[in-house]
Amino acid sequence: MSNAKVLPLIDPAEGQGVSPCCPPLAERPMTAEEARTAAPMFKALGDPVRLRLFSAVASHEGGEACVCDISDVGVSQPTVSHHLKKLKEAGLLTSERRGTWVYYRVEPSVLGAMGKLLALPAVR
After folding, report:
1. DSSP labels for the chain?
2. How far apart are CA 78 and CA 90, in angstroms?
3. Fewer CB atoms inside 10 Å of the end CB: C or N, the chain?
């Protein structure tokens, strides 16, 4: 059973792959609505433990990680669970329970959307 949810950071354009919630930061100033959409992602990643957990999942072999493999980040297991929950709420991770363990995944579309948001404008 999957606990996957629709990720708020992306707005897939038909046939064009992933497009971010907002234009690249260097393209133009964000509107208030765009900033409200993107801020939860940056807020979630602004915590060092969450950033380490996100990196551990994103870089894990096969693109997903069991919580049992990523929980050694210097905080207690309940705190790890809290931080993983915050990453899920921000739309950065999805999870799936398999038996007694929960597996976390960073969807490729999330990484693509983040990359486009932080992309530099094309040089003309």
Report:
1. -B-----TTB-PPTTS---BSS--TTTSPPPHHHHHHHHHHHHHHTSHHHHHHHHHHHHSGGGEEEHHHH--SSS-HHHHHHHHHHHHHTTS-EEEEETTEEEEE--HHHHHHHHHHTPPPPP-
2. 19
3. C
- Can you read off the two tokens belonging to residue 92? 């950065």
Q: What is the distance between the alpha carbons of residues 4 and 36, in angstroms, rounded to a whole number?
A: 22
Cα–Cα distance for residue pair 76/34, rounded to 1 Å: 35
User: pTM of this prediction?
Assistant: 0.75
Residue 42 structure tokens: 């940056």
* Digitized pLDDT (tens) for each residue of the chain, 124 residues in all: 444 444 444 443 333 344 456 778 888 888 898 888 888 888 999 999 999 999 999 999 988 999 999 988 999 999 999 999 999 998 899 999 999 999 999 977 888 888 888 887 766 6
